[in-house]
Amino acid sequence: MLSTNGDTFLGGDDFDRAITDHWIRQNEIHPDALKEDKNLSQAIRLEAEKAKKHLSFSDAYEGTVSGLSCRISRQEFEGLIQPLVDKTLQCCTSALRDAQTDRAHINRVIMVGGSTRVPLVKQSVSDFFGQEGYDKVNPDEVVALGAAIQADILAGNQKDLLLLDITPLSLGIETIGGLMDVIIPRNAKIPTSVGRRYTTSVDGQRNLKIAVFQGERDLVEHNRKLGEFTLKGIPPMPAGLPKIEIQFLLNADGILNVRALEERSGVEQTIEVKPQYGISEEDMAMMLLDSIRHAQEDMEIRGLLEARNEGNSIVLSAAKFLQQHHALFTEAENAALRTYAEALKAAIAGSDKDRINQAIEALNTFSNPLAHRAMDFTIAEAMHGRKIGS
Prior knowledge:
Blueprint: H1 12-26, H2 31-36, H3 38-54, E1 60-65, E2 68-73, H4 74-99, H5 119-129, H6 142-154, E3 165-166, E4 171-175, E5 179-184, E6 189-190, E7 192-198, E8 208-214, E9 224-231, E10 244-250, E11 256-262, E12 268-273, H7 281-293, H8 295-325, H9 331-349, H10 353-383
Antiparallel strand pairs: 1-2, 3-6, 4-5, 4-8, 7-10, 8-9, 10-11, 11-12
Helix pairs in contact: 1-3, 1-4, 4-5, 8-9, 8-10, 9-10
């Protein structure tokens, strides 16, 4: 499997609803009448489902419900459902893009689900992929049969078949500022193992909390928390010095093992979570839709938080630099460095990402020559009285 995409809120019921609404308009039925008469509402819906099936092999349908005329042609039906079919094709486009392939590389398109019997669906899919949809399997049974085969594989009974599945939602951890750092992206093949290196943000930090999340939003507060654990006993070191590797191992059963290892000391901690436990297809679809709806907003928030994180790190570095090397510089230089650092602090307190980045650049531009002088002095002190042999 290379990718998965779809709209779990879209299906045959939407086709039925389109016919139902058409008949309601046709018979000038007031919505309140349907609310009061639930039996009539249900009868029209059942008649609509019957009409949908009939139109798969006929050009028109005509019936009655409680004395109301219910008629519709295939042409009218196709006009009603065309926007719904277009949504399906949009999902196909997204699936191809996520799989990093194109229509020319698709060998066969298998028609699955009762609604694939609708002629417009068949024709639209055939036109989209440039080939006839394969409908020689029972569309109502094919998913259940496939699930049964996969169950047999996972049970160890089927040795000559293997399904390489994918993860439907991204998996990652929370970083500074509540950001989601994705480690295993959505549509990654499973089983898979991915590692990434992190470090501490505070001097002498002995413990590191690792919170695992699932979802597509840039902030963890909008994603689903799967679990958390604490890596304890990190030897006290300056911020940025510890090397902490966090590894995600996702197996074929959808079980996620997360391991955190501080490489210098060998301190290690692990946790096991089930990424898909308790989450429905509808919830997954809603999480994906939310990520699309809020993409621009999330991108702006991430940009601001990343700028703040970088700015805070530089402010701390500047303070440490001043404390260690203030004697090397003039009072004017020390005062100017403090002024640039204060300007960066003020920018961080605001919500203008560009202003923060400008303040970072200004501080870096001013401090770089000072840093070179401090480095030259440190090297000279270290080499004092020593000879370099040829």
